[in-house]
Amino acid sequence: xxLSDGIGFKALTDRVQYPNLSQFERPNVIxxxxxxxxxxxxxxxxxxxxxxxxxxxxEMLSSGFARFDVARYGxxxxxxxxxxxxxxxxxxxxxxxxxxxxxxxxxxxxxPKWVIAMGACATSGGPFYDGYNVVNGVDKVVPVDVxxxxxxxxxxxxxxxxxxxxKKIQTMHIVPPVPTGAVRPQTAAGPAVTGPAAAxxxxxxxxxxxxxxxATPDKVRG
Amino acid sequence: MLPAIGSAGLAxxxxxxxxxxxxxxxxxxxxxxxxxxxxxxxERGRLHDVAVAxxxxxxxxxxxxxxxAAVDHVSRFECVYHLYSFASNTYLELHVEVxxxxxxxxxxxxxxxxxxxxxxxxxxxxxxxxxxHPDLRRILLRDDWVGHPLRKDYVDTIDNHPHV
Lengths: 222, 164
Fold this sequence. Notes:
The structure holds two protein chains of two kinds.
Chain A: H1 9-15, H2 34-43, E1 48-49, H3 56-64, E2 87-91, H4 99-108, E3 114-118, H5 119-124, E4 146-148, H6 155-170, H7 217-220
Parallel strand pairs in A: 1-2, 2-3, 3-4
Helix pairs in contact in A: 2-6, 3-6
Chain B: H1 12-23, E1 27-33, E2 37-42, H2 47-55, E3 64-72, E4 76-85, E5 90-99, E6 104-106, H3 115-126, E7 129-131
Parallel strand pairs in B: 2-5, 6-7
Antiparallel strand pairs in B: 1-2, 3-4, 4-5
């Protein structure tokens, strides 16, 4: 799920197209996709998990207060329980004793969920790289979406990380990607199924997506 | 330098003299560290008795154990107890040598409850056993950690890093 998973993150984010705001004028009706509505709502109401472990937590707190004001991005509701969160900002040094706890808390978060590694320690161990008790990067324990460099990063850097995460969230799909023009065989037994295995001998030809990312987002969005 | 006069009106040299008078047989290498600290060495086997006596010393009761340190001198270990006397507003630094072959010393957590966690940390980091301690578990590292990492001869093992 990390940025380095080779999905062409930049290319995807470049294709995200918001409807023109003028469409919000009369007659108060817009036509758009389910994907857009969900990703728009999700990316603008991220609930971060209060996971401050070291001095990065001070910058994270500072981000929440009036001077920097993370509320501008709709991400100000820091929750103390993982069950109400979808973003874990790992702000600080993770040690070997904390690692299993961090993993359990991550698993208690409900899907979809994201992780930001804030600062040098959470990214790679930072100045404690050679320490006997330091996990060299939180990505050894949980999958990380955005890495923020700095020791500690200023609130502005955290905001840039949050905005990069917003872009990433906006590339997510609620509807599974299907190539344009694909035929979904409709059976009485259940919902639509795609793929060669679902097609009977008399069924029309089905073009199965060759890969989960086979459909280009702009085609899906019409 | 501030004069180290506590509520008992004792200068630090007087405190050292009183300590030698009361516990002279057990204290070795007594010296004064200006402005307010007396440093002394204690035999390992006498530590607990000395601790009880120090805590009950009339007018000079060392009622507070600020911290317990452990030092690795390679050939031997050393435990250092920093004690504080509210009555005289002075500190006492007790040094106890611990042989490397048998790294154990009597606990003082029954004399000063504050020593409980400090002794657990000394066990965790330096591997010094405190005999009679009520709950001598690791305090900072995981329970299944192998070795005591602040020892000079500590060698880290991959078993301690399941996430790498």
